[in-house]
Amino acid sequence: MALESLGRWGLALALLTGLTSPAIADDAKSADPKPATETAKPDPIDWDKARALRAREQRGDKLSAEEQAYLDRAKAALRAGERPNAGAGRPAPAGRNAGAPGEARASTGLVPLSDGGEAKYKNLPLGLYGDGKSDPPAAHLEKALAAAKQIVPLDADGKPDAANGRVALLSIGMSNTTQEFSKFVEIANADARKNPLVTIVDGAQGGMDAADWADPQRGPEVWRRAEQRAAALKVTPAQVQVVWIKQAIKGPQRLGDFPAHADVLQKHLATIVGLAKQRYPNLKLVYLSSRTYAGWAQSGLNPEPYAYESAFSVRGLIGQQVAGDRGLAYGDAPVLLWGPYLWTDGTKGRAADKVTWEQADTARDGTHPSDSGRRKVADMLLNFFTTDPTAKGWFLK
After folding, report:
1. 291-341 pLDDT, tens per residue?
2. Which residues contact 21 (CB under 8 A, 6 or more apart)?
3. Which residues contact 83 (CB under 8 A, 6 or more apart)?
4. Which of 373, 305, 364 is nearest to 81 (CA)?
5. pLDDT tens, position by position, 251-273
6. How far apart are CA 88 and CA 43, in angstroms?
């Protein structure tokens, strides 16, 4: 299967299912126009046509009865297990996957970056910070610790106010991010150790991937919604000093094999960091995380190995700053660090901390987290902010 064709069908499936599946009503019925008495099989679904109809439906366009019936038939086919198949227009059998949607895999055999050591991926060393190392370089850590010491409660205008000011921690990301971070907000706010002057704002939004946040046309509305959520908690842009970013690209297959899609994500992340600094002038630290395990994925929204490979986008961006990239210069840009590394090799887990990602940790689509998956990520976030040397000083009482 040509890679660009796989990308097109992956994107088609993503658009049809929406980002969280509930966009498709469970009671939608197949609307095959052929009479029930006809024994011939219906024509294969034209997935390009179905994708276009779904996009129109999402925009609120009025579909004709015939168009709606065709779209309902495509939705029913997806629920029944059919998968868009490039080339012949026929559904691919469920259970096949070579990086394509459909296969549920308990593990991939890929080595988590956090395990580091001598292992490599496509001739690249592992380690969150490269060269098999998962701790930040000493000079970079020094910059991060200095930035962390500058994080103090600020009033609405951004002036220090130790009694009534706020330290705002904001999330930026997509559907997985908001589902996980909203659970983190819940358990963190209930934790007696948390600094009461820290206000946690979930700015991440369903359907808004890295390209949406970075886009000059769509982006402003996405950022506006994030700031509305902050305002609802009485947080101003001047009080946002820490950001957690977890991002991905919908249907990364269309962008080409690794490292092409990872390079695009890295550029989007750089743009997002720059926009965040423009909007939040007192932003000091940005923590980044890559995707959770996607071996259970049932669509091309962001399956393996793309979820795994997104970690190289995060590592590459941080590496730009470490290497002295002028656009990410210390002081002009916030210090960039890894937040919790979320990927683990399914049920096989990882050596560093034995964390696993079970099928029960995902929703029915195998991509978004279930309640247990949300809690797992939320626990990792809480552990990070209460123990990391660059975070615990301002996050804890």
Report:
1. 999 999 999 999 999 999 999 999 999 999 999 999 999 999 999 999 999
2. 363, 364, 365, 368
3. 9, 13, 91, 92, 94, 100, 101, 102
4. 364
5. 999 999 999 999 999 999 999 99
6. 12
